Amino acid sequence: MKKEINYKSHCIKLLENRGCRIDDITDIVFDLQKKYIATLTRDVCEDAIDRVLDKREVQYAILTGIELDIQAENGKLSEPLQSLVAEDNPLFGIDEILVLSICNVYGTIGLTNFGYLDKVKPGIIGKLDKEGKDTHRCHTFLDDIIGAIAAAAASSVAHNSAL
Amino acid sequence: MKKEINYKSHCIKLLENRGCRIDDITDIVFDLQKKYIATLTRDVCEDAIDRVLDKREVQYAILTGIELDIQAENGKLSEPLQSLVAEDNPLFGIDEILVLSICNVYGTIGLTNFGYLDKVKPGIIGKLDKEGKDTHRCHTFLDDIIGAIAAAAASSVAHNSAL
Amino acid sequence: MKKEINYKSHCIKLLENRGCRIDDITDIVFDLQKKYIATLTRDVCEDAIDRVLDKREVQYAILTGIELDIQAENGKLSEPLQSLVAEDNPLFGIDEILVLSICNVYGTIGLTNFGYLDKVKPGIIGKLDKEGKDTHRCHTFLDDIIGAIAAAAASSVAHNSAL
Amino acid sequence: MKKEINYKSHCIKLLENRGCRIDDITDIVFDLQKKYIATLTRDVCEDAIDRVLDKREVQYAILTGIELDIQAENGKLSEPLQSLVAEDNPLFGIDEILVLSICNVYGTIGLTNFGYLDKVKPGIIGKLDKEGKDTHRCHTFLDDIIGAIAAAAASSVAHNSAL
Hints:
The structure is a homotetramer. Chain A is mainly α. Chain A has one domain (2-162): PgpA-like (YutG-like, Orthogonal Bundle), CATH 1.10.3760.10. The first copy, chain A, is 74% helix and 0% strand. The first copy, chain A, contains nine helices and no strands. The first copy, chain A, has helices at residues 2-17, 22-33, 42-54, 56-73, 81-86, 94-103, 109-120, 123-134, 142-162. In chain A, helix 2 (22-33) crosses helix 9 (142-162), helix 6 (94-103) packs parallel to helix 9 (142-162) and helix 8 runs antiparallel to helix 9. Chains A and D meet through helix 4 and helix 6 of A and helix 1, helix 4 and helix 6 of D.
């Protein structure tokens, strides 16, 4: 069990190093669900994010996606993959495939939330997407990872409030 | 081959009988993609929808989903399924699962588009969703089917314009 | 919470009425995992199945799939869906789509196990598949439902033994 | 269009460099489908593989997966990802997620075929899996990529023979 706890804190640190605090994800989950649940608090959202980050599959997807972003940022991938990731080609699609495992941890409504966030790009998602496009930073996988964590957490909140 | 052609026209007729013309779907695809493709025409969108409806898996999902809607409308399903479908319970999720096969026919970006449409419910999707909630009509599966056809067609348009 | 518990026992009763006891599913899970875990017991497998059946998405998929089987058996579906389901057409695919939500409850390895069971059809899966093909009974969805429950339970067993 | 053709031949060369010829994949597809189609020829299988490799999403998954294998083989990934990929941890799951986009190009039956191949590991899949486990070579993603290409090609063969 110890190993997993380390993975989780390692993932949270990785997200922070790449520019995303848990608080930024809480903002998105809260905004997404407050229209459905009048009594929703940020604590409930943060707790849901915490449980999403407990899942092994989520941790693996974070580790893999951020690694590819960092390697592309440093020009370390082989061509043509280097250009595809560095340019965040909208038809690349591997970023979205990778995070399906995150979206799905609390069932299919995670997919719907993810699709919405991926199109609308609220808060930190839009900020990182823009930074990835305007600077040398590469956030091709990161914005999808954040969207998927938020989507899964929102699904968890929705499921729990329905009990 | 003949059989399939019949399935396709049968599906188009089913959609019409339930309140959705191909033209209504074209509206959604055009609105979704015109911001990305300045030269987009409605003909291109209609053509993409036509190709989506050619696919066997799409036809099967349409046949199954609309059957469940009609049976629920007529009170012919067993409980508790009857209530779950008739009330369009947002956590039911089988409607979204069923149409994954439609979304995916042109790759993962179909999923993202579907998630967006499912949340925003533009045009005919919102109209049917409302009718399903306010009247005796049941459109639990239909609105997802339409969203998925539009999402897949939009993906096809995006792929082709990128060539 | 009460409602869910009822759904679960209702699903178990439905499975039994259609010819599948939990014990039959335990056989499959045990056979699938005993080669990987020397100390595996049937109790561990049964417990994993029990937790799979606790999940709302699993219950919904069971309710929907078995309803379609029963209606097809009684000739109550509209054509051409009636023939597609009654004949268990191998390209129909909606049965496999429907149970994806079951396979995925414990992550992607559920998918792999499901694919294997769907091809090899061990124990009760093969028995019901044959009954569906040779008699008036229709088990088009049931065999996939059982395979998916077994696959998800096997994934849960694998994950737990790895901790 | 030119770019895509280059991607395809680049992918075929990558597969060969890692130890898998198209002919090895043809063996698997032929073995998988010959029991269902008495008149099946290797040419039909090869043609189906060729069409799978035409798909952009397939090419992207091949590029990404093989890159991760090569980087792990050279010890170039960050920990803990380096160990997870190099050791081919059976619960890692990202290899299976990545190739879902390949499996799905011809519909859901691709998933079933993939699950079967991933368990049984016939021909080149088993050979590479063993090589990855016994030597310094890393084929964590490659064996899933090959299984997914074979599974998608087998689905295409099945669909076409049913017309």
